[in-house]
Design brief:
By secondary structure, this protein is mainly alpha-helical. It has helices spanning 5-25, 30-52, 58-64, 68-87, 89-104, 112-124, 127-137, 143-163, 166-188, 194-215, 229-240.
Length: 241
């Protein structure tokens, strides 16, 4: 397969899954949709917990020292959240979603923007989202992204049954995010150590937990504003290490 094929497969999987989800949605009443949303929120929370579990990897304590991994995640979330708030990332994502909604969605009552933001974050946070395209760019194969595509396919069905075509629009985010990492992997090689990837994954897990809390209507955490944490965490690892 050609370099970048993993991201292409991932995008196709999300688009097909979204289409199936929208098709199913017309056959679901409001109560069933609420149950689907709650179930999706709980499963997203489970994914968040499993993703955050990377913070317990012994390699982190051995490389950074005991206690440092938690401090780095805390600093990344706080500083990243402050930076993201100053840059108004959440608001800009919502504006981008509204523009896409106006262009492609004829259903004014749809939750297009919310689906676009939530799905974009879910599909682009995690070890596979980073390691997959980098490995693909290095010519190491697209197996990681094929596995991720399978998971994203079923997640897209569930999300789109609730949020509609906004989930399909997240394919643009996947293209930009994973496409950029594939290009970087091809041009620069493996630029992040295993420790940095573990810390990035743990930090991303907290952001996914924020998505879960939003889906469950517990608290509307501005997860988009915390996205800079995903850049800050690997940088802090490099400094501490």
């Amino acid at each position: 397969m050609f370099i970048g094929s993993g991201t292409v497969i991932n995008i196709i999987a999300v688009l097909i899954g979204s289409a199936l989800g929208v098709f199913i949605a017309h056959r679901l009443n409001e109560k069933i949709r609420d149950v689907v949303t709650d179930g999706l929120g709980l499963v997203t929370g489970m994914i968040a917990v499993l993703t955050c579990a990377s913070i317990t990897d012994p390699l982190l304590s051995e490389t950074l020292g005991s206690g440092w991994p938690i401090l780095i995640v805390l600093a990344s979330i706080v500083v990243g959240g402050m930076l993201g708030t100053a840059l108004q990332i959440e608001e800009r994502l919502e504006i981008a979603g509204e523009k896409l909604k106006a262009r492609f969605s004829s259903d004014g009552s749809s939750r297009f923007t919310e689906g676009f933001v939530a799905a974009s974050l879910l599909f682009c946070v995690g070890a596979m989202s980073v390691l997959g395209p980098i490995t693909d760019g290095l010519g190491g194969g697209n197996e990681i992204l094929v596995l991720k595509s399978t998971l994203d396919f079923f997640a897209a069905i569930a999300f789109a049954s609730v949020f509609g075509w906004g989930v399909a629009a997240s394919a643009l985010t996947i293209l930009v995010f994973q496409g950029s990492l594939t290009a970087l992997g091809y041009a620069l090689g493996n630029f992040m150590s295993e420790v940095q990837v573990l810390m990035l994954t743990a930090t991303g897990g907290l952001l996914i937990l924020g998505i879960s809390l939003r889906l469950l209507n517990i608290r509307q955490i501005p997860v988009g504003n915390m996205l800079p944490a995903l850049v800050i965490a690997p940088l802090l690892v490099a400094i501490v290490a």
